[in-house]
Amino acid sequence: MCLAAFSVIFIAFIHINILRVFCESVLRFGVPPNFASFSIRINGESKEKKVRKKLYDIFSSSDSIGKNYIKRSDENDEEIYPYVSVSFKI
After folding, report:
1. Total structural domains within the chain
2. Which is an annotated Pfam family here (predicted)?
3. Structural domain includes residue 89
4. In a domain, 27, yes or no
5. Residue 33, by phi and psi: left (phi above 0), alpha (psi -120 to 50) or beta?
6. What is the four-CA torsion angle of 44, 46, 48, 51, rounded to 10 degrees?
7. DSSP labels, 69-82
8. Is the dihedral of CA 41, 46, 51, 52 positive or negative?
9. DSSP code of 62?
């Protein structure tokens, strides 16, 4: 019983994160609702910094959608990037 409940809750958790990515993409960056989203699994903090640096370079260029972003949100001190980033641990 507990294992079945865990799988249902985990699926709901993933769906909520997918909805968050969709809403942030459309509301913050104004992209049309037909876009692609990707998940990246990174092992290690040093690799995460390298990947974030590369994504920052790509999406903060002058011709990309993320060029006009805010560096830090004052509301909840969550880091804001020129791309949508939702992190969670599995």
Report:
1. 1
2. V-ATPase_C
3. no
4. yes
5. alpha
6. -140
7. --SB-TTT--B--S
8. positive
9. T
pTM: 0.69
Q: How far is the C-alpha of 52 from the C-alpha of 24, rounded, in Å?
A: 18
Question: What is the sign of the dihedral through the CA atoms of 73, 39, 51 and 47?
Answer: positive
Q: Report how far residue 54's alpha carbon sits from residue 40's, in angstroms, rounded to the nearest whole number.
A: 13
**Which of 48, 32, 31 lies closest to 40 in space, CA to CA?**
48
**Residue 9 is encoded by which pair of tokens?**
């809750």
In a domain, 37, yes or no: yes
Per-residue pLDDT of 42-81, as tens digits, reads 888 889 889 999 988 888 776 666 555 555 556 666 777 8
